Amino acid sequence: MPKEILINIESGEKRVAIVNNGVLEEFYIERPQDKTIVGNIYKGRIDAVLPALGAAFVDIGLLKKGFLYLSELEEMLEHESSSDEGPDEDKQVKKPQRSKKSPKETIKKNQEVMVQVVKEQFGTKGPRLSCNIGLAGRYLVLTPHQNHIGVSRRIEEDDERRRLKQVLHELKLPKDAGFIVRTAASGKSKQELDNDVHFLSKLWDKMSEGLEKRKAPAVVYEEYDLTLRVIRDSFADDVDKLVVDSKEEYYRIMRFMKTFLKYLSGRVHYYPQGNLFENNDIERQINRIHESKVYLKSKAYLVIEPTEGLVVIDVNSGGFKRNIEQEDMAFKVNCEAAQEVARQLKLRDLGGIIVIDFIDMEKEGHRREVFNVLKKALSTDKAKYDILGISRFGVVEMTRERVHRTIQMLSYQVCPYCQGRAKIKSALTVSIDAQRELKKYLQNNRVKEVSVSLNPVIVDEILKSKQGLYLIERKFHVKVNLISNPALHLEDIRVS
Description:
Elements: E1 3-10, E2 13-20, E3 23-30, E4 41-50, E5 55-59, E6 66-69, H1 70-83, H2 103-106, E7 112-119, E8 128-130, E9 135-136, E10 140-143, E11 149-151, H3 158-170, E12 178-181, H4 190-208, E13 218-221, H5 226-234, E14 241-244, H6 247-260, E15 268-270, H7 276-279, H8 282-287, E16 293-295, E17 301-306, E18 310-316, H9 326-348, E19 352-357, H10 364-378, E20 385-390, E21 395-400, H11 407-411, H12 427-444, E22 449-454, H13 456-464, H14 467-476, E23 479-484, E24 494-495
Parallel strand pairs: 1-14, 11-12, 14-15, 18-19, 22-23
Antiparallel strand pairs: 1-2, 2-3, 4-5, 4-7, 4-13, 5-6, 7-8, 9-10, 10-12, 16-17, 17-18, 19-21, 20-21, 22-24
Helix pairs in contact: 9-10, 12-13, 12-14
């Protein structure tokens, strides 16, 4: 099967699956109440300046203030002041002289500033903001505060990089603005890039109109929703077709395609025959995203344990046939695991510090080859990452950018029973706790009879040995009634 983009629309949710040969490679969810603000541009007001942290908190109209580095704000202000002196003829950035004043003197509370959200708010942290505004098109990103031309690092061919730079230098670009060439621009014509320049320039001009009159905090620009964002970023020549199961969304997509990607509009299809994800075996694969164990074809498996800031991935041989030497077995399993690790990082959108513990290998050549397989598999990842070498113990450390809330954050809540421990107390432990709670109650209350309501499993555990209950009744001269209540959680203990 070829590469496909499948879009499922429900009343309260949009889901997008990118599938390659029937295997789920990327999966995204968006709900109205959880719509991402990453990419949105705001006119904000500085709420507090903290020179000791080198940061400022900016009010952009949300409950939590955004976090902005002062160095970015200073660079933007210096760019604006240098722009007033006239444009740079060769479109190269002249390094501005640093202000001699401290951030506390040049940047004040209630000062208005234009910012873009680059990282979603997580937990108690507000959104991460940047003054380096970027308007993304199909092939280019307009950077109004940085008047230089750059090319995506993912375009590795030197000839293509030089060609793209030359094409942009030949185009009529807006003054005091720069462009970054996106990976999707590789191989595209001068006319296609010029269309993107024209569109982004008009969009920026429209945004800038009346900006001074707007009262902060205010939204200046909202990023596309999930459907259009995926089409813009992922619907390329290597995608055989895009299928959507909503007629209304289909027409909306077609209008977008005719404006920006007319040559691909013939690959967009409406799916009226029932459950799109179920019929393409996507639902089953989605349900497995949150499982801690991921089984490989060789019957080896990964164990993925994410925490708030760290992800640990352990590679285990599992049911792999061990009719070969230990070293060869470890090498084969690790090579397969390396590719699956890269896929799972994208699929689950895991970020922060990531530690991968491969099976120990004695040969340096094997370790190096496994590391190269991992790097090659990660090369298609759109998120920014940094990876260190593999240690002699088979451990790889890396970081991966976390911009949005993960699928797990959107789909799950902390278990009200285990409170996120992922474990509950054993029946024996709870039975002992129940007797402890009973004694504590009787020490403070003089009664002749007391009732203890417990889950039936805990009642059975207490009755296995009545000695403890008998000693309590004898010590406090009280009759204890055990009440079996199936509605109670295993850890619930109610004394009355």
